[in-house]
Amino acid sequence: MSLEPRSTAPARHAPCAVPPNVLERIIRNGTTEQRDWALSTLSLDATARLTRTHNAAVALARPRRRPAPAPAAIGPRRTIADAEGREILPGVTVRTEGAAAVEDVAVNEAYDGLGATFDFFWSTYARNSIDDEGLPLLATVHYGDHYDNAFWDGQQMVFGDGDGELFNRFTVSLDIIGHELAHGVTEDEAGLAYLNQPGALNESVSDVFGSLVKQHKLDQKAEDADWLIGGGLLAPGVQGVALRSMKAPGTAFDDPVLGKDDQPDHMSRYVYTSADNGGVHINSGIPNKAFYNVATAFGGHAWEKAGKIWYETLRSPVLRTNASFRSFASITVTQARTLFGSDGAKTVQEGWRAVGVRV
């Protein structure tokens, strides 16, 4: 069975798993083949940016409905398609909701990852899929030739197979799947601008919920989690453990080809740049560290207190699309006070102050 192709043009996205500054380093430092793969990936990423932005704008403009389906009707509706190495979406349908596992491990990983993300948002925050209206979840695997990325394009998830030398297949990392789907949640609730500090918050919120999806699946407490984003994604021989570390920003990798993880963990090291939409994948390390501070200070399951505060902040009507770190932090403190009293507010406030954001 084949779904009708949406487009023969490159896929559309702005946020993606591997940030552009890392791909640019591969182009500078890698072998001829690695450079070609990274250049192709970066080209696809850049070409499709405007279309994905359009998809997000159209979605935000639609009237918001909040139907209340019967609890028995709530559950994921997953479809996994295979692009078969091409750049046509969505591709050939290979697994649908309730169907048995297939021989293709990437198909099964995508299916399970979508399910784990749906289950996380529903069981923890009673959110019915990405849009809270039961949106069906579609993913395409085996996209492109040695495509070194994964992304949410405003309508579906797309996974490359990696190049096998620097990156493994992108379905291998549950937190990456959760991260990309969380971009859809942010688009639906807050529409944080993908530029400078609001863009870094956009990326950080996805890291927060990507990590929480994995922690929820593994039933981990905050103190037991690895707090890595993209664990298992780096191929053998690459000097690193993941794409990012929320616990220790700036330490995830230090490799001759990928370069060094350049995420700051404090406002005193904030990176002012015009690259990467104003450093959205770089400066997200600061709010990431703040969330880690808050989650570990509360203890227990991070989604119960810290995650709940961040989720309600994302849904807050006073959160602006151009929110700064400080304004976002201020709302988290307000939400913490509402949910967990003055002690909760103090815990959140101290978590932000530790990274140089005073509220």
TrEMBL record:
The active site is at 180, 281 (proton donor). Its cofactor is Zn(2+). The keyword S-adenosyl-L-methionine does not apply. Residues 106-187 form the Peptidase M4 domain. GO terms for molecular function: metal ion binding; metalloendopeptidase activity. It comes from the Bacteria. Residues 190-357 form the Peptidase M4 C-terminal domain. It is an enzyme of class 3 (hydrolase). InterPro entries: Metalloprotease_M4, Peptidase_M4, Peptidase_M4/M1_CTD_sf, Peptidase_M4_C_domain, Peptidase_M4_domain. Its EC number is 3.4.24.-. It is found in: Secreted. The keyword Transmembrane does not apply. Pfam families: Peptidase_M4 (PF01447), Peptidase_M4_C (PF02868). GO terms for biological process: proteolysis. Its main location: secreted. GO terms for cellular component: extracellular region. Keywords: Hydrolase, Metal-binding, Metalloprotease, Protease, Secreted, Zinc. Extracellular zinc metalloprotease. Belongs to the peptidase M4 family. This is Neutral metalloproteinase. It comes from Frankia nepalensis. The lineage of its organism: Bacteria, Bacillati, Actinomycetota, Actinomycetes, Frankiales.
